[in-house]
C-alpha cells in the first residue's frame, strides 16, 4: 500500500484556510528544543490550574512510506538509541494525564511491527489500526476506531503526526480547550520565506503577502462530531488529494477553526537531515528525566518525594516506582537515568540487580546509562565504610559497570539522633564531558538540601 505523506506545511490566512495549492517552507531551527517536562503523573495544569474535565483522545497517522528521506525504513520506525521515533511521540502523549487513549494508524503491512513496538515499550494507552491509501483515509479510519473502542467516546480528538515527537503539553491543552469551545483548532507558525505562484511554463505568476499568511502545523483538535461528520461528507477528491483537516471542518461543517501560535518545536521529521537533528535533541532530553526505584520503603518514598519537588524547579521529571519488575520493567527500555534508594543495610545487591538488568539489554552501547545509588543510614556517624558498605566492593562494582558504559554514582545519607541529616558523597567514576547532566543535577539537589553536611569524595 502506498500512502500519501502530506507536505510539511499548509497555508492559513486571517484565521481562515487558504485553499490555493501553493507550497511553502517554515523555519526549522537547528536547535528546536526538548520534550516538555513536568512532575511525573501530573498535568501541567493540575492541580491549582485549569483542568481538562472532558475525554480527549489522539489519532496519530503513521502510514507514510518515507519517500522523501530516501530510506527503506519509514521514518516513523527509524530507531534512535534503540527506540523507534514513533515510540517517543507516543510517550509524549502518554505522559499527559488527561489524554485517555491513542490510536496509531499504520499501513496494513506494518501492523505487526507497530503491535510489537506497543508491547515492547509497554505503551498503555495505545492501539494500532490499519490505515488507508491516503492521509485522509487513514485519519478517517482512526477517528472511526475511537467510537469502536471500550473507552468513552471522546469529546475532543487531537490529530498529530507520528513524526513530530517534540510536542508541548501546554499547546495540547490550548488546542483541546479551543477545539471544545470552537469545534476545531490548530497550531500555526509564521512563514519565513515568501510564497510565490508559478505559471505552467515555470515563470512567476504572483506572490503572496507573507504577513497575511501562516504555516498550518500539528497538532490539530476537533470535537468528535465535527471531524466525524466532515469525513462522512467529504468527496473522493478530498480523500485522494487533500491534506488539511481544518479545511474539511470549514467546508463541510461550517466550523471556523481557532488558530493558535505554536512554539518552534513543532517541526516535522521529513528529510534525511532531520533524522540527525531529531537524534541530537532526543539525546539532550535524556538528561531531563530519571526513574527512582524505592524498593517500597516508606523512608525511600519520602526521600523520593522530596527530591521530586527539588528537581521540579529545574525542569527535571522523575518517575517514582517501587521496583523494575512487571509493568515497571518498561523503564529499562525507556529511561537512561536511574536512582536506586537503599535503606539501613548493605544493599549492594539492589544496585547490582539494576546494573545486571541494564547490562542485559545492551542499551549502553548506544549512549551512557547513569545509575545513582542512594544509601540511607540511621547511624550516628556517617562514613563511606559505615554500616557494612565496603568501599572496595562499591568501586569494583563501579569499575565493572564502567566497562559496559554504565556510570555509577553513590550518595550516602545518614540520620543522627537529633534528626539532622548528614551526607557523604562518593563519586564512583569520573564524569566524562559528554555525560548526561542528570548526575550533576541530582547531586546538586542532594547537596543543596542537606546543610552543613560532611562530604567525602572517592574517585576511581
From TrEMBL:
CDD domains, per the entry: CDP-ME_synthetase
Checking SUPFAM superfamilies in the record gives: Nucleotide-diphospho-sugar transferases
Kindly report, in one word, the top-level EC class recorded for this enzyme. Answer: transferase
The keyword Cytoplasm is annotated on this UniProt entry: yes
Q: Which GO terms describe its biological process?
A: isoprenoid biosynthetic process; protein O-linked glycosylation via mannose
Indicate whether Transferase appears among the record's keywords.
yes
Q: Which GO terms describe its molecular function?
A: D-ribitol-5-phosphate cytidylyltransferase activity
Got a GO cellular component term for this one?
cytosol
What does the record give as EC number?
Answer: 2.7.7.40
Catalysed transformations (reactions): D-ribulose 5-phosphate + CTP + H(+) = CDP-D-ribulose + diphosphate; D-ribitol 5-phosphate + CTP + H(+) = CDP-L-ribitol + diphosphate; D-ribose 5-phosphate + CTP + H(+) = CDP-D-ribose + diphosphate
Per the record, the pathway is:
Protein modification; protein glycosylation
Where does the UniProt entry say this protein principally localizes?
cytoplasm
Provide the protein's localization. Cytoplasm, Cytosol
The record's listing under InterPro entries reads: IspD/TarI, ISPD_C, ISPD_synthase_CS, Nucleotide-diphossugar_trans
Pinpoint the D-ribitol-5-phosphate cytidylyltransferase C-terminal domain residues.
288-420
Keywords tagged on the record: Cytoplasm, Nucleotidyltransferase, Transferase
Quaternary state and interactors: Homodimer.
Q: Which family does it belong to?
A: Belongs to the IspD/TarI cytidylyltransferase family. IspD subfamily.
Function summary: Cytidylyltransferase required for protein O-linked mannosylation. Catalyzes the formation of CDP-ribitol nucleotide sugar from D-ribitol 5-phosphate. CDP-ribitol is a substrate of FKTN during the biosynthesis of the phosphorylated O-mannosyl trisaccharide (N-acetylgalactosamine-beta-3-N-acetylglucosamine-beta-4-(phosphate-6-)mannose), a carbohydrate structure present in alpha-dystroglycan (DAG1), which is required for binding laminin G-like domain-containing extracellular proteins with high affinity.
PANTHER family in the record: D-RIBITOL-5-PHOSPHATE CYTIDYLYLTRANSFERASE
Protein name, as recorded: D-ribitol-5-phosphate cytidylyltransferase
Please name the source species.
Answer: Etheostoma spectabile (orangethroat darter)
Amino acid at each position: 500500500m502506498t500512502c500519501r505523506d502530506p507536505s510539511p506545511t499548509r497555508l492559513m490566512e486571517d484565521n481562515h484556510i487558504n485553499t490555493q495549492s501553493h507550497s511553502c517552507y517554515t523555519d526549522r531551527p537547528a536547535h528546536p528544543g526538548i520534550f516538555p517536562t513536568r512532575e511525573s503523573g501530573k498535568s501541567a495544569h493540575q492541580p491549582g490550574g485549569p483542568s481538562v474535565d472532558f475525554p480527549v483522545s489522539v489519532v496519530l497517522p503513521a502510514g507514510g512510506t518515507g519517500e522523501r528521506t530516501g530510506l527503506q525504513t519509514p521514518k516513523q520506525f527509524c530507531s534512535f538509541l534503540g527506540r523507534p521515533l514513533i515510540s517517543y511521540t507516543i510517550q509524549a502523549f502518554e505522559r499527559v494525564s488527561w489524554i485517555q487513549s491513542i490510536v496509531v494508524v499504520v499501513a496494513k503491512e506494518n501492523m505487526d511491527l507497530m503491535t510489537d513496538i506497543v508491547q515492547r515499550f509497554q505503551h498503555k494507552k495505545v492501539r494500532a489500526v490499519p490505515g488507508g491509501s491516503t492521509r485522509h483515509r487513514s485519519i478517517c479510519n482512526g477517528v472511526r476506531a475511537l467510537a469502536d473502542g471500550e473507552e468513552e467516546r471522546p469529546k475532543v480528538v487531537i490529530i498529530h503526526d507520528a513524526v513530530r515527537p517534540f510536542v508541548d503539553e501546554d499547546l495540547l491543552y490550548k488546542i483541546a480547550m479551543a477545539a471544545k469551545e470552537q469545534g476545531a483548532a490548530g497550531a500555526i507558525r509564521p512563514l519565513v520565506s515568501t510564497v510565490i505562484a508559478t505559471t505552467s511554463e515555470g515563470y512567476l505568476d504572483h506572490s503572496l503577502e507573507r504577513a497575511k499568511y501562516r504555516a498550518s502545523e500539528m497538532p490539530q483538535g476537533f470535537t468528535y462530531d465535527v471531524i466525524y461528520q466532515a469525513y462522512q461528507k467529504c468527496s473522493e477528491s478530498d480523500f485522494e488529494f487533500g491534506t488539511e483537516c481544518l479545511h474539511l471542518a470549514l467546508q463541510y461543517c461550517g466550523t471556523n477553526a481557532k488558530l493558535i501560535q505554536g512554539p518552534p518545536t513543532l517541526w516535522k521529521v521529513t528529510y534525511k537531515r532531520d533524522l540527525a537533528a531529531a537524534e541530537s535533541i532526543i539525546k539532550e532530553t535524556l538528561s531531563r528525566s530519571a526513574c527512582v526505584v524505592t524498593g517500597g520503603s516508606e523512608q525511600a518514598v519520602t526521600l523520593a518525594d522530596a527530591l521530586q519537588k527539588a528537581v521540579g524547579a529545574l525542569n527535571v521529571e522523575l518517575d517514582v516506582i517501587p521496583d523494575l519488575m512487571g509493568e515497571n520493567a518498561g523503564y529499562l527500555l525507556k529511561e537512561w537515568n536511574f536512582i536506586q534508594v537503599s535503606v539501613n543495610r548493605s544493599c549492594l545487591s539492589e544496585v547490582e540487580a539494576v546494573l545486571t538488568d541494564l547490562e542485559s539489554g545492551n542499551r549502553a552501547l548506544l549512549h551512557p546509562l547513569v545509575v545513582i545509588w542512594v544509601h540511607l543510614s540511621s547511624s550516628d556517624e556517617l562514613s563511606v565504610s559505615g554500616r557494612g558498605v565496603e568501599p572496595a566492593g562499591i568501586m569494583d562494582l563501579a569499575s565493572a559497570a564502567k566497562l559496559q558504559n554504565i556510570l555509577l554514582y553513590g550518595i550516602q545519607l545518614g540520620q543522627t539522633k537529633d534528626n539532622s541529616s548528614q551526607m557523604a558523597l562518593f563519586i564512583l567514576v569520573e564524569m566524562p564531558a559528554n555525560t548526561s547532566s542528570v548526575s550533576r543535577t541530582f547531586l546538586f539537589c542532594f547537596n543543596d538540601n542537606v546543610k552543613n553536611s560532611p562530604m567525602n569524595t572517592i574517585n576511581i
